[in-house]
Amino acid sequence: MDFQVIREYIPLYQEAGILTVRIALIGIIGSIVAGFLCSLIRYFKIPVLHQITGVYIELSRNTPLLIQLFFLYFGLPKIGILLSSETCAIVGLIFLGGSYMSEAFRSGLEAIPDIQKESGLSLGLKKRQVIWYVLLPQAISISVPAFAANVIFLIKETSVFSAVALADLMYTAKVLIGMSYNTDEALFMLVIAYLVILLPVSALFTLLERKLRYAGFGN
């Protein structure tokens, strides 16, 4: 292992790491919004939309992200829709993550006893207020472990973005290996970069789960 080479690679991985984190952050936020809306539609079984979201979830969860990216990057231009690499990555991550987040939120909602919803309505709360003040806080607390697993999963899935020419961490490693043949150093830096991104996220969710458990939420 040549540490001089590693020192030279650090700025390149820093730049690629910032891009990867930015794409992952936008994609995860979009996934949470999409997943939350889909979970409410499926929980309350809203006609038509319930069936549409069901098809979306099955399609999203049963096709690899790489295939979805190929469709966005190579397929859509055939019908006149041209997306940049960055846009494809964000849309693909939201499409994939939205279905996983939806199921995480829905399982949290369904874990709440019906008596709580009925009690809220009997107290005169509107349906919207029951969702906001009664169901949502508990559902989020219950969903935290699945939510954390989904976030970490989505960050790791960013490693396939290089397939649509996005200059992320994996793309940088491939380029450096091809140009200099310093395979060990490039892969070592790739592993370190993902650890730097993922370990704080994992520690943060572990701390959050512990605090929620102490507070008695989700029990």
Automatic annotation (TrEMBL):
Task: Classify the protein's membrane topology as the record does.
Answer: Multi-pass membrane protein
- SUPFAM superfamilies assigned: MetI-like (SSF161098)
Q: Which Pfam families match?
A: BPD_transp_1
Its main localization is membrane
InterPro entries reported for this sequence: AA_ABC_transptr_permease_3TM, ArtM/GltK/GlnP/TcyL/YhdX-like, MetI-like, MetI-like_sf
**Keyword check for Membrane:** yes
Protein's UniProt keywords contain rRNA processing: no
What are the alphabetically sorted keywords of the record? Answer: Amino-acid transport, Cell membrane, Membrane, Transmembrane, Transmembrane helix, Transport
Please give the PROSITE patterns that the UniProt record associates with this protein.
ABC_TM1 (PS50928)
Q: Which GO terms describe its cellular component?
A: ATP-binding cassette (ABC) transporter complex
- Supply the Gene3D superfamilies for this chain: MetI-like
Q: Which GO terms of the molecular function aspect are on file?
A: transmembrane transporter activity
Q: Where are the transmembrane segments?
A: 20-44, 65-96, 130-153, 187-208
GO annotation (BP), single: amino acid transport
Compartments, record wording: Cell membrane
State the family named in the UniProt similarity comment for this chain: Belongs to the binding-protein-dependent transport system permease family. HisMQ subfamily.
Q: What is this protein called?
A: Polar amino acid ABC transporter permease
